[in-house]
Specification:
By secondary structure, this protein is an all-alpha fold. The chain is built from ten helices and no strands.
Length: 160
């Protein structure tokens, strides 16, 4: 229900491998998803007592996407059969291309704050930059350049 904070992101990022060629990154993503579904916040939102269909439907609803009926049924049946876990279902929902498309620009702006400014976005600035990115049809090159040339970023390195 909210974006991650800078300190949460940095902590979680430290758990990920940069060795994507060897498959370590995929393994780390699996572990991260498993750890994530074990957090108290996740369990509060999606209690283990929740019916499989309600769990899947709520994940999709909170992601803001309509599931493909076959994929929805496969996830529910997989949970019932034990071939899916809460973590694998979560990954399949967030890896959905519709969700990715809907969230990419928002995540990119937040990553600019995290990566370049090393802080949480302020709501006004975040909304401004998201508007700029949306109005430029997702031109991430110019967005990154704007952050690099910002006074705040350059000030981190003693440049005016």
């Amino acid at each position: 229900g909210r974006n991650p904070l800078f300190n949460e992101f940095i902590t979680d990022m430290g758990k990920m491998s940069t060795e994507w060629q060897t498959g370590e990154l995929e393994y780390d993503k699996q572990l991260y998803a498993q750890d994530f579904v074990e957090t108290q916040a996740f369990k509060n939102q999606y209690p283990f007592t929740m019916e499989f269909s309600t769990f899947v439907d709520t994940l999709y609803a909170n992601a803001g996407i309509a599931p493909d009926p076959t994929e929805r049924a496969n996830l529910i049946n997989g949970l019932a059969a034990g071939t899916e876990t809460r973590a694998t279902v979560l990954r399949k929902v967030v890896d959905n291309s519709t969700f990715h498309s809907a969230e990419f620009r928002k995540a990119f702006v937040e990553m600019c704050y995290f990566g370049y400014l090393r802080r949480d976005p302020d709501p006004e600035g975040y909304n401004h930059w998201l508007g700029v990115l949306n109005s430029s049809n997702g031109d991430i090159y110019h967005m990154a350049k704007a952050f690099v040339w910002s006074t705040e970023y350059r000030g981190r390195f003693g440049q005016p």
